[in-house]
Design goal:
The chain is built from 1 helix and 4 strands. The protein is of the alpha+beta class and about 70 residues long.
Length: about 70
């Protein structure tokens, strides 16, 4: 799994730690897990690089929209 930090562009602009890979992603902030998500069955048809790219994209969208977490 790969790690990156992402700073939200709205609200408090908090920085989140995103761990992502071909199976899904985890979002943490302040040492607490905020969201963990597996990629759906449709993504399993993609190649591994594409799944990694999609997992990172989904995680960033969740952070920006605060899906499944509070700011």
């Amino acid at each position: 799994m790969e790690l990156t930090q992402y700073r939200r562009t709205q609200g408090q602009q908090a920085t989140y730690l995103v761990e992502y890979g071909p199976d899904g992603y985890q979002i943490s902030r302040d040492g607490r897990l905020r969201r963990s998500k597996q990629l759906g069955p449709a993504c399993r048809l993609m190649g591994q690089r594409e799944r990694v790219r999609v997992a990172k994209q989904f995680a960033i969208e969740d952070i920006e929209r605060l899906i499944g977490m509070e700011e």
